[in-house]
Amino acid sequence: MTTTPLTLSDRTGGVSLQLDAANGEVSLKYAPPGEPLRLAATISAQGGARDAVSILCAAGAMAASTRPAGIATRLSRLPARAETASRVIGRRVQQFMEWLVASKEDTNYTYDLTPLNRAHLAAVISVVTERPITEIQGYLAEPDADAALQAHYTQTLARLPAEMAALADPVARWARRLGWYAVLRALKPRLVVETGVDKGLGALLLCAALKRNTREGHSGRYLGTDINPNAGYLLNGSYAEHGALLIGDSIASLRSLAQPIDVFINDSDHSADYEYAEYKTIAHLLHPGSVIIGDNSHVTDKLTRFAAETNRRFLFFREEPEAHWYAGAGIGFAFT
Q1: Regarding beta strands 191-195 and 263-266, do their DSSP bridges make them parallel or antiparallel, or are they unpaired?
Q2: Rounded CA gap, 149 and 208, in Å?
Q3: What value does the mean pLDDT take over residues 115-125?
């Protein structure tokens, strides 16, 4: 087979595609007519993909009359197919560059959900909680309209040491945690347990829900577990009146609990085995009305498995971040 690179281009669409069999690489450039270069990327093909690159390069070197059947058509369509993918990849690259400059976060990324995604979230939670969708939509709107909550977040960041504040964005964006909040507002739980607290963004939002519930005559308590003694710094002031943190191994902390758990949120060690071990540890504290939320359900089947073992239904909501390079995670729900 030839090792001569094969270059294909679509001058109308602005795509240039080069296949290099010798190095097993595919290079793509995307510059719509009259516009600057939007995307330039080179990837190393492996396995079957590398073989495909070699085949296409060899086919491109053949005379048109001797190309294998279908290869000419396939080659002619590559630039158009690349352009279609370039539009999607280009948006991601642009969002990545904007995030790299504007955001301070290096883990547990925060963002807003698209309006359609929020509508889907409301529909899912309406099923899980058996509450009207209009009620759930109202709950989802509360945090962004809560000036005191937003001010608490900003003021807490202002008091942090510079090295900690440098890793948190100045505006609170709740993403899928809005779903957690709406579940608490709908079900009015007496005990909520979250494993894995990190900065405490979820803890803060959950306690904000409990704070509103208490004003409405439905008091509840939040317990968060984390192995990091510096975790949960956002949970302070009046919000801390509704919750507390247990520092140490999450499973060890869960074993110390005796009160029935109304809502359980797994968001700690994201290994599949540890996730499942948490569910098994708290199984005896669950009741028919308990809701179990998995923050790992976009990558494991452990909550699906636990739901089946405990005669619960399972639903999954996938995030669609707005204007962010990250593809999003999701929420798994196990409920009766």
Answers
A1: parallel
A2: 7
A3: 98
